[in-house]
Amino acid sequence: xxxxxxxxxxxxxxxxxxxxxxxxxxxxxxxxxxxxxxxxxxxxxxxxxxxxxxxxxxxxxxxxxxxxxxxxxxxxxxxxxxxxxxxxxxxxxxxxxxxxxxxxxxxxxxxxxxxxxxxxxxxxxxxxxxxxxxxxxxxxxxxxxxxx
Length: 148
Known about the structure:
- The chain is α+β, with helices and mostly antiparallel strands.
- The protein contains 4 helices and 6 strands.
- The chain has a 6-stranded antiparallel beta barrel with strand order 1-2-3-6-5-4.
């Protein structure tokens, strides 16, 4: 299994995946989101990426426990990626994306959206919505990939 398997299955399912993070009590919080495969914006390693709303539970969980699992299913086949999650957004600076470097968050959010199969007719409107909702990019560097 590798990220090519994940990308292929995600594309066949409209890039819908299940993302799981750990709550403070150790239980698991899961949600369905769109995610895709792209290169990490700083070090270029292939990753799984998604966009999350600023006030979402998944971001709060990741801030406290930066580990997540992402699973995609296509028919009876599935691929799971486990790894460290990084956040890059208005409330979560990421060296090389925000801070001392030029603020790349709007561009990064577009890149993640495209990697997850998205397109938009009005990128100015898209950028404004992302800023208003304090959306952030979540970048998952795989440490384990498995499935059938």
